[in-house]
Amino acid sequence: MSSGTSSSGVPPPADVGSADSLGNLSPRLALLGVLALIALVHLPLLGFQFVYDDGWTLVANGFLRVPTDLGLLFSPEAVARHVPDAFRPGLVVFDLLGYQLLGLSSGLHHALSIGLHLAVCAVLVRWLRVLGAPFDLALGTAALFGLLAIHAEAVAVVSYREDLLAALLGLAAALAASRGRLAAAALLSLGACSMKLSAGAIPALWLLAEGLSPWRPRPPVAHLVRGALALGLGVAAVLAYTFALYGALDPYGADNLRVHSHRVGLAPVLAASLPIHLGYLQQMLVPLGLSPEYTDHAARLRDPAVLLAGAALLALAGYGLACARRRPLVALAILGAFALALPTSNLFPMPNMRADRFMYLPSVPVCLGLVALLLAAGKWLSRHVSEDMKLVAQVAPLAAVVVVQGSVRVATAAVYRDNSHLWAVARERAPDSARAHAVLGELVVRNVPADAPREDKALAFARAEAHCRNAERHDPRYELPQLCFARLAAAREDWSAAYRRYQAALAVSPDRNAGIFAGLAEVSLDLPATSETTRTDLARRHLAEGLASYPYSPELHATAGRIFHRLADPEQAQVHYRRSLDLAPERPEALLANVELLLDLGRPADATELLVREKTAWLAADPGDRTALVARHRDALRLFEPSTILSADPVGVFAHEP
């Protein structure tokens, strides 16, 4: 046995303690310095709010508040009850634990995302070193990856930490496989794919890295087979789980209109994907054109842009294959990026054809290749400068690119600080996006104060209507424009129009329909020219349908409580108010409504006790809503001695609010 291989036939890992061209600098200290720099750049995220799908997957996801129901996640009941992201069970478990530990502190959740991103960078360095990569190359790759501008979306949006988790566990699985720890590799691969199936391409990346072996002797074929099988077991297990839940490998469903290929066919979508993926490469190399929103579109194979993009990608892939023997690092960078981009290439159904976050994992080999090129440029440059400038020259090209990427990263991340700013930017950069216009319209309606002057309300509603009309014009088969119109009509108290628009939204919406059922039930009670019996029956029917499909929706339970309150059924109203509070204890709407009910029933002592018990939700309520509630029931509250109220109510609301 030669000294270059271990007893198992696998070349030994590189010495992590050697610093290669970094001289006497401690590798661990250098790595900590790079991680600290990455963390520093991301510090502004700690002040960001929840945006995008954070509301659906975290803020209003009642399933996370019921850990005793976790077992049903691994049964078809998870689909029947519309548990968010049920086909990503690892992510749901992670979010449940995250909520139990961090609550709904947006700052803490953003800190967790930053920590996950740093962990990805650290594991990447470790794996590259085990593969035999020089330390300066491994560290530079982590630095560039950590500050790459296209990663802003994945790190800045809490609900997109699925990409961070999939990358972290996927790279850890590759590391375990490279070290011959096959059981750990299989379990980590399972964990990665249970976060997001885009990690299913990790076995291909691992085979390329080990098979091309740019820095050490190629390992035996048996090592490659065992490692690939171990990594593939995790992928196969998650695919089997998805099939067991949905009866198919497509969790979105064949009739899901959010998937563009279901509307226009697969071929036009694949044609459009060629310029998209060439655009991804441009955005990674030159960070221009990054956007929080892209519009889905079809194309034809004979379109000039498609032909040029296809030719460029084909030439790049061909060059990568040609470099396999003589330039294995170049081949790994190119072919590895193609392999990791495959799951998001629109070959498989996706609700969004394009998003910056899709390039989080595929950018790993791109960063590796780019850093190798920049270090080579620095080495060439160092030969043309004085001795005392050689070290500076060696790192200058890499440092310049990292600084540029990091600067753009900071500016790009700022887009995600809150929903209003995010969707305003989204509309500017994707003016034909139905989603951006619809969400902006709803935000305008939601932000109109209840006590605003009539003229101000009319002006705001006119702005919202313009957004709704633009959204419907861009995509009449999408539920969000209909919801925009429905909520605008409800704000205008045009109950017939609101009901009609909610029905139109439900007709085209494949899922996430708890809010639609809640809206239908609530406006049913106010339909004009309709008998009271019919209105009541409609409200009850929509509630029953919604609660059967979305039992973990706090919004739907709160709506049910209000409706039963109006229907003079206080027992049912209290049941649903209580359930809504259990599913979203930080949201005050159900608490205020429950207090109102108890006061209407002549039970101010119970109302005060409830406020004391649910102090968090009370403090989260709008001060105007709290004041109005107390003012409406001042007479009932006067039945109590002030001292009793003060001692029972630590907030002092009844004693101090006018």
What this model shows, in words?
TPR repeats lie at residues 554-587. The chain crosses the membrane at residues 29-52, 107-125, 137-158, 164-180, 187-209, 229-252, 264-285, 305-322, 329-348, 360-381. It comes from Nannocystis punicea. Keywords: Membrane, Repeat, TPR repeat, Transmembrane, Transmembrane helix. The chain has helices at 27-42, 54-59, 77-80, 89-102, 106-130, 135-147, 152-156, 161-178, 182-195, 202-212, 221-246, 260-264, 266-285, 304-322, 328-341, 363-382, 390-413, 419-429, 434-446, 454-474, 479-491, 495-508, 514-524, 532-549, 554-566, 570-583, 589-600, 604-613, 615-620, 623-632, 634-637, 642-648, 653-656. By secondary structure, it is mainly α.
Would you kindly provide a brief summary of this structure?
The protein has 658 residues and is mainly alpha-helical. 66% of the residues lie in helices and 0% in strands.
